Structures are given as C-alpha cells and as structure tokens.
C-alpha cells in the first residue's frame, strides 16, 4: 500500500528541510535476517500444533492464527527485499505493470498481517474470558467446529479488507479505517478486562478454584498484547502523522524514525514464539522434540 507502507519515501521535502532530526537508516540485511527468523519461528509454532494432538485445542488454534499473522508480516519484508533486489539488478522495469502488481500483492500481505493480529488477539481475549467466567459451559460453547468456522470467516474478512485497503489506499477514509482498527481492538479487550475485573471482585472465591492454566492464559494474553502495542503503535502513529501533518517539522522529526518503527514490527514476529514457549510447557516440549527430531507421542 504505497500511501501507507512506503511512508518514509513520501515525506514532504519541505518538512525534511525544516526538521533538524537526522533520518535513521538501517541496513536492509538486518530486516531480511530478522524476517527470516520470524518466518521460521512461527512456522515451528504451526508445525508443533499440527503434529502434536495434545496442542490441538481452541486456544492453540487461535495462537496459530496469530502466528500466521506474524509470519505474513515477516514474509512481506522478505518479498519486498527480493523485489527491490530484482529491480536494482535490472530484471524489473521500474514502476512497470509487473512491479506495480507485485507491490500491491506484497502490501496486501502487510495489511493482512496487521488485521490478522488484531482479530487473533481479540479472539484469544474472548477465549480467555470464556474459560475464566464460563468454565463449566466452555466446551459446549467453544467447540472445534465453531472455532474453525470463526477462523475461516475472520480470515476471509481480513483478506477482503486488505485487498480493499490496497485498492483505495490513497483515500483519507481508508487511512482512518486502517488506523481506527488498532484502538478499537484495544477498547474491546479493555472492556473484557474491566468486566473480568468487576466479576473477579464479586466471584473472588470462584476464581481461586479455577484451573491455574486458565489464569495463566489470561496473563499470556496480557504479555502478547503489551508486545503488540509496543511494536505496532509507533507505526500506526506514523501513518496518522504522515496523513494529517506531513509538512510539520515536528511530525517530520518523528517520521525520520520510520525504519526503526518498521524494525519493531519485524521484531514482534520474532518475540511472540518465545512468549508461547516461555508460557506454555506443552508447546515448549513440542519445540524441543522438533529441534532434536524426537518422535511425538
């Protein structure tokens, strides 16, 4: 999405001249290496859940959805670097039809990554809410069939939205929609947290009797959400500043950190699998078996 993804290249020259902040440039090799690591790590998460029947539960299916989102974000940067390499080598005509089409496809992966992360975290939050406060009815409410249907509908909606945002990327309403999804997710999860806190106060004894894994899952969600906000919020702010105050020197000063903000997004895909492994002994054991080529039970 040229208006949203390639923001660094589109900063107004006047704003650059008025800003005394030097533009931070990071080597593309670092982006490429981190992206490769992100793809491999999240691919391990998917393989671990697919091969280990003990991990094939709704919670881990939602984690797989988040892992796919992270993997798409890393894959976006890999494909972008390959496209740039072929263009620099003269195999692609600059701004030609093929490059324009490839740009749109690659940009849609980036938007799909953000949308997938937002909805995956929201689904994990809803799942944790149900496990804590509707533990007795949980297995009748959250069946594997319903989980698969929800995931399919969610990802189909995300793909349609990503394509639409790429097509209408130069329109202000698209930018507003793109950036509004981030705070809307936070509001939704915050509402769940507030409701959980209020219910926990009135059902304190009941909460203490719940399986420890249910509360541990809620803590894991909190960590994942915190990392997501830390890694994505600077980029979302960049989009807003680029759209509404591109000529302001203070905005341009912040936008000089565009590549740093992009690096944070790539790091999110690398950090999440470590959180899964650190918080889940089952997934950690599955990783060890995969690494040391042990058989699954």
TrEMBL record:
One of its GO terms (molecular function) is corticotropin receptor activity. Pfam families: 7tm_1. Coiled coil: none annotated. One of its GO terms (biological process) is adenylate cyclase-activating G protein-coupled receptor signaling pathway. The chain crosses the membrane at residues 30-50, 59-79, 105-126, 147-168, 180-200, 221-244, 256-278. SUPFAM superfamilies: Family A G protein-coupled receptor-like. Residues 41-276 form the G-protein coupled receptors family 1 profile domain. One of its GO terms (cellular component) is plasma membrane. The keyword RNA-binding does not apply. It is found in: Cell membrane. Keywords: Cell membrane, Disulfide bond, G-protein coupled receptor, Glycoprotein, Lipoprotein, Membrane, Palmitate, Receptor, Transducer, Transmembrane, Transmembrane helix, Ubl conjugation. It is a multi-pass membrane protein. Its main location: membrane. Belongs to the G-protein coupled receptor 1 family. Homodimer. Interacts with corticotropin (ACTH). Interacts with MRAP; this interaction targets MC2R to the plasma membrane. Interacts with MRAP2; competing with MRAP for binding to MC2R and impairing the binding of corticotropin (ACTH). PANTHER family: G-PROTEIN COUPLED RECEPTOR (PTHR22750). Hormone receptor primarily expressed in adrenal cortex that plays a key role in regulating adrenocortical function. Upon corticotropin (ACTH) binding, facilitates the release of adrenal glucocorticoids, including cortisol and corticosterone. In addition, MC2R is required for fetal and neonatal adrenal gland development. Mechanistically, activates adenylate cyclase (cAMP), the MAPK cascade as well as the cAMP-dependent protein kinase A pathway leading to steroidogenic factor 1/NR5A1-mediated transcriptional activation. This is Adrenocorticotropic hormone receptor. It comes from Ursus maritimus (Polar bear). The gene is MC2R.
